[in-house]
Predict the structure of Glycerol-3-phosphate dehydrogenase [NAD(P)+].
Amino acid sequence: MSKVSVIGAGSWGTALSILLAKKGLRVSIWDRNDGLLNDIKKARENIKYLPGVIIPQNVEVYPDIIECIKDTDLIVLGVPSHAIREICKNIKGSLNDGQKIVSIAKGIENDTYLRMSQVIEEETGINDVCVLSGPSHAEEVSRDIPTTVVVSSRKRTVAEYVQDIFMTPKFRVYTNPDITGVELGGAIKNIIALAAGISDGLGYGDNTKAALMTRGLAEMTRLGVAMGADTFTFSGLSGIGDLIVTCTSMHSRNRRAGILIGQGKSVNEALTEVKMVVEGVKTTKAAYELSKRYQVEMPITEKLYEVLFQDKNPKYAVTELMLREKTIELHENEEVVTREQKSWEL
Ligand SMILES: NC(=O)C1=CN([C@@H]2O[C@H](COP(=O)(O)OP(=O)(O)OC[C@H]3O[C@@H](n4cnc5c(N)ncnc54)[C@H](O)[C@@H]3O)[C@@H](O)[C@H]2O)C=CC1
Ligand SMILES: O=C(CO)COP(=O)(O)O
């Protein structure tokens, strides 16, 4: 039976520890916050991040990260994306031969623009890192609500190994070889979720949100394809699937932060109030800069960047989006444009 270590006892790391422990796997968990570990050990509950959910006895807490990963088959990296590199630096000298790593963080490293699997590979030298992504709020997974996700790795055997480890009757895991698309979908949907939250906070309606989600998906796909991803991945669980859940769920930290900003709070006030990690803020900066580098049109991302980093009034940002130059719907796809030109009745 595999032994798994989970690095980061936030909401997602804890929820997946519970899932694996319920399957009968031995799970070791580490966090930099000793208070969290004490609560898990003594109260069998993560009171800060996942209150009300019992944590099985076979989740063992380790205040020492090296002891936590020792003799485990799989390491799950569940810290926010800005912390992944530092964690890898700490553990790289203590990895066992054949030990696998799966990243569950959804972000793009600011400054380097690397995806999380690339950061992990760069730091540890492991070349078959796996990622797990998809519509999966910790609050629901930890309560056995049916959920589907996707795992990806450069190596099919590794993706299938991780698929088997996580699969349960309530947690269905698919594989997808397009690691670039899986990671970019998971990261960029947080930008659109922030925008959808702002729209809700401004008091706009379902029409506005549907527009943001649809045009947001076009932006995700455009940047993803420019960076080497497969278009079809964005119609899958780690693309539109995660976009739907994050833009509509009250569990979403990104959407909740957006609602507060739309209601008039500053970005810092919103982040403080949400308390948990809101990855979309840093990802907006990275994606905005990437859109310039790849010369990809990302108007929603651009307006959100101005709201978050240049103090633009969110209402003006929406007006500016609505007043953009008129165009045809699928203008980015040359094949579709040619087909459409031929199908108009003259
Ligand atoms: N919460 C969810 O439902 C889901 C979250 N994710 C992703 O999982 C990642 C973690 O998110 P959550 O668990 O929600 O975060 P969280 O805010 O619930 O917890 C973050 C955890 O990371 C630790 N941490 C923060 N900064 C750190 C640092 N510099 N070094 C070491 N540890 C640090 C904190 O002590 C805390 O335990 C994010 O990338 C998020 O997008 C993905 C899918 C679902
Ligand atoms: O990625 C997630 C669900 O799939 C979590 O999204 P939030 O960080 O917005 O809560």
The longest helix spans residues 179-201. The beta strands are 3-7, 26-30, 59-61, 74-77, 100-103, 130-133, 147-153, 171-175.
